[in-house]
Design goal:
heterodimer, A: 307 residues, mainly alpha, MetI-like fold, globular, B: 393 residues, two-stranded antiparallel sheet, disordered N terminus
């Protein structure tokens, strides 16, 4: 099935992974206090975990209940049950909620935005970190300065602009402002200036690679760990974003956070339905987190030391 | 840097008597490639940013000088009248106070909680990744969803929190009625989402603290608590400042949490928990529909953020550099601590081999410079890995 080259490649990769594992195991325990954690630590951490999970569990409980019991008791029942799925079904099929459209819109926006932020930030970060050009310093300072400017400041002109070009209520209006972030450029600049040795670029150039070829085959692979974190972070940010979509989008063409708004408007008294819907809205990102949370954790921590 | 200037072709470097060869087309292209590429690579960011970042920024200032309506569009030039009008509205000031109060409730406890949890995680834990992922789960829940959920938890009647309070004998709190109580409730939503995230940032900083400092502290007889306050906290000072400043920018922009806390989403009947961003929204898209005034609010908010950011920076720096009894931590101080630690380690290891150089009996006492035979202490773990992501797995 697989050609020799592929096997060699995969074998090489796994060998490298194994070596990395061995190395990290052989190393002295990372961290200031390497003492073994006692029982108390586990109990306290368990409590923290319970507290952070409880609101989600509570959502399931209310979603399994009915409005009357919710109105009469803070904990209508202790375990979720199958009536939860009735709520899910109602939310999904309600034509006022537009659940599938919202899911599609959210996915579209988050995917495009994170891909674009990663690509453009890596390009600019590579340029700032490793290439020499006139105006590099001032431009980088400018990027860092804009990081402190809140998005709310520009919300009104942005709205006027979108209304002017007829994008009110369309997903493009949400995608466009999310295509680049100053944070992304700063992040990739930081990472590449440390992680990418000049020797590698030089070697590629001596071998006759063009600038863009050097970027694709040298800088891009080197940037991968930081790019993964940036992409995930941007994905979560866009997926949970409410402020701008709530202004520029309508309930006819919503994103998932706007579904929460519709639920509240349409079923305000029916808490079990609202809560069921909220869990449904939260679920996709929870599932994603289950698979890539490890990378997100690693990325946040990797960035923090330098940040 | 050398590679960035176009490499001269080898033959062009020949003797002075040889006439310089004309550059070929591909070489000229190569030179152009080197010259233009950097600008080409940063241009997508700057072009897009000009449209979605810079233009709105500048244009907000222009809009704020006009009588500009959501429906009617651009009106007359009114100068600073919008700013005056906003500053004269009591509701603006109320929203500023609310924002401040919510921010205080969320930032201070959040930093304390995050540092504490990070200290718990900064140990030799079983299933470390599991715990780290666990604290980050709330981060992926949308703030609007959090707001709805907490709105129920904090329900005035038959709410879960009031019920728990009742168990310990506290009277039900009017979470949607009392001003301070509502600020507290909204702060917990912010804390819920961001504590775990900041915990990981603190954890990373803690793991970069040189282990020798702890060893020295242990030798000096410091207990766990003392180690935490005298070694960990001063060492992660830069990170504390970073977190406080980012949480300032975030804390001044609270919007989602208020919008979903009750049915109207405008901060309650008396606007008791209306934040400035919600006020901005209400001015622009609510009853007034005045873009001019809303733009003025945006600029005032920006000024406020800059002011508080600066204040925060000064404050955290003062605290962290230890006005009072906390040790002042400079790079030199860290170096000295390291030297002490090395010396201490030396006195331990050096005891067994036949004789310490010089042969003084009490060599272990005090802090003599480490003898040359002692192998250098390896660099702190945080700095040696070229790929920081690996440390965590």
């Amino acid at each position: 099935m697989s050609s020799v080259a592929v096997t060699a490649q995969t074998a090489g990769a796994s060998a490298a992974r194994a070596a990395a594992k061995r190395r990290s195991r052989g190393r002295a325990p990372v961290g200031g206090s390497a003492r073994r954690a006692g029982k108390v630590t586990y109990i306290l951490l368990g409590a923290v975990l319970l507290i952070s999970m409880f609101p989600l569990y509570y959502t399931l409980l209310l979603g399994s209940s009915d409005p009357t019991s919710i109105a009469q008791s803070p904990i209508p029942q202790w375990l979720p049950d199958a009536s939860l799925f009735t709520q899910f079904a109602t939310v999904i099929t309600d034509s006022n909620i537009n659940f599938w459209l919202a899911l599609w819109n959210s996915t579209l926006i988050a995917v495009i935005s994170s891909a674009s932020v990663v690509l453009f930030s890596t390009l600019a970060g590579y340029s700032f970190a490793k290439l020499n050009f006139r105006g590099r310093g001032p431009l980088l300072v400018f990027v860092i300065a804009t990081m402190a400017v809140p998005v709310q400041l520009g919300i009104i002109p942005l709205y006027i602009l979108m209304a002017e070009i007829g994008w009110y209520g369309k997903v493009q209006a949400v995608i466009l402002p999310g295509l680049v972030t100053a944070f992304g450029v700063f992040w990739m600049t930081q990472y590449l200036s440390e992680a990418l040795p000049y020797e590698l670029i030089e070697a590629a150039r001596v071998d006759g690679a063009s600038m863009i070829r050097t970027f694709w085959s040298i800088a891009m692979p080197a940037a991968l760990p930081a790019a993964a974190m940036l992409g995930l972070f941007q994905f979560v940010q866009q997926w949970t974003n409410y402020f701008w979509p709530s202004i520029i989008l309508t309930n006819e063409n919503p994103t998932l956070p706007l579904v929460v708004r519709s639920l509240q408007a349409n079923y305000f008294v029916d808490y079990s339905l609202v809560m069921g819907g909220i869990f449904l809205v939260t679920l996709p990102l929870l599932v994603l987190f289950f698979f890539v949370g490890r990378q997100l954790v690693a990325g946040i921590m990797a960035g923090a030391v330098k940040g | 840097m050398a590679l960035l200037s176009p490499t001269k072709p080898a033959h062009a470097r020949g003797g002075p008597d040889r006439p310089p060869r004309r550059l070929g087309f591909s070489q000229r292209l190569g030179r152009l490639d080197v010259k233009l590429s950097p600008y080409l690579y940063i241009s997508p960011f700057f072009l897009l940013f000009a449209v979605v970042g810079l233009f709105p920024l500048v244009y907000t200032a222009i809009v704020s000088l006009y009588d500009w309506n959501l429906l009617g569009g651009q009106g007359d030039f009114v100068g600073m009248a919008n700013y005056v009008a906003v500053l004269q509205q009591p509701l603006f000031w109320k929203s500023v106070v609310n924002t401040f109060s919510i921010f205080l409730f969320s930032s201070v406890p959040q930093v304390i909680m995050a540092i504490t949890i990070a200290a718990l995680l900064d140990q030799n834990l079983r299933a470390a990744t599991f715990w780290r992922m666990g604290v980050l789960v709330p981060f992926v829940v949308a703030p609007v969803a959090i707001s709805m959920i907490f709105g129920r938890l904090y329900a005035d009647q038959y709410g879960f929190i009031n019920e728990v309070l009742g168990l310990v004998g506290v009277d039900p709190v009017a979470w949607h009625g009392d001003r301070l109580a509502s600020h507290f409730a909204i702060s917990t939503m912010v804390n819920y989402r961001w504590t775990g995230y900041n915990t990981l940032i603190f954890l990373a900083a803690m793991q970069a603290v040189p282990r020798e400092l702890y060893e020295a502290a242990v030798i000096d007889g410091a207990g766990r608590v003392r180690q935490f306050f005298s070694v960990t906290v001063p060492q992660i000072r830069a990170t504390v400042i970073f977190v406080v400043i980012t949480s300032t920018v975030g804390g001044m922009q609270i919007f989602d949490e208020v919008r979903m806390y009750d049915a109207q989403g405008l901060g309650g009947p008396n606007r008791d928990w209306m934040t400035t961003v919600v006020y901005l929204y209400d001015v622009a898209w609510g009853n007034q529909k005045s873009f001019g005034r809303a733009a003025a609010v945006a600029w005032l908010l920006f000024l406020l953020i800059v002011l508080i950011g600066m204040f925060n920076f000064l404050l955290t720096q003062r605290i962290a550099t230890g006005g009072g009894r906390g040790p002042k931590v400079s790079r030199r101080h860290t170096k000295r601590l390291l030297a002490e630690a090395r010396a201490a380690a030396a006195s331990h290891d050096g005891a067994v081999p036949s004789a310490a150089p010089g042969g003084t009996p009490g060599a272990g006492q005090g802090s003599p410079p480490p003898p040359p035979s002692i192998p250098p202490v390896p660099p702190p773990a945080g700095t040696q890995s070229p790929n920081p992501g690996e440390d965590v797995r």
